């Protein structure tokens, strides 16, 4: 099996996870959607391990891997917003979809700005401070694990699905993701 095939498979799989969670109107189906996102999380590391094991790592392979990760970052939060809308009986439930979209966009936007900045001005110190995880201090590491969909976000979403408080998940992560986005962009552009 080739690493790029696994990356493409995980991209397709995360779209399916998003559709299942977004279409859910009850906890059982939502948990299946969550499990599919969890499966993506497991697949996310497989492509790189295969590439290293077979010694066939390529720049294009890294692009395929990033494609899967970027899709997951946005779709995870957006799907949570749609699910919260589906289970709500509030006339303002549509706001959950907007909040999920803003939260997902806030995960992606700083990465897009950082990649553009790297291409245009190089890997200068302010960009390294945002992108080089080996230089992260304790606070940045905690923030990364609390906000990364490969970290604590997935178990927190499962808890919120099981206890029917996905709307609070969306509010919390929208605020956190927007704050981190603003700080990241400030650090990149200063």
From TrEMBL:
Keywords assigned by UniProt, alphabetized: Membrane, Transferase, Transmembrane, Transmembrane helix
One GO CC annotation: membrane
A biological process term (GO) from this entry: phospholipid biosynthetic process
Pfam families: CDP-OH_P_transf
Transmembrane segments: 27-46, 67-86, 142-164, 170-189
Keyword Membrane in annotation: yes
GO molecular function: phosphotransferase activity, for other substituted phosphate groups
InterPro entries, per the entry: CDP-OH_P_trans, CDP-OH_PTrfase_TM_dom
Protein's recorded name: CDP-alcohol phosphatidyltransferase
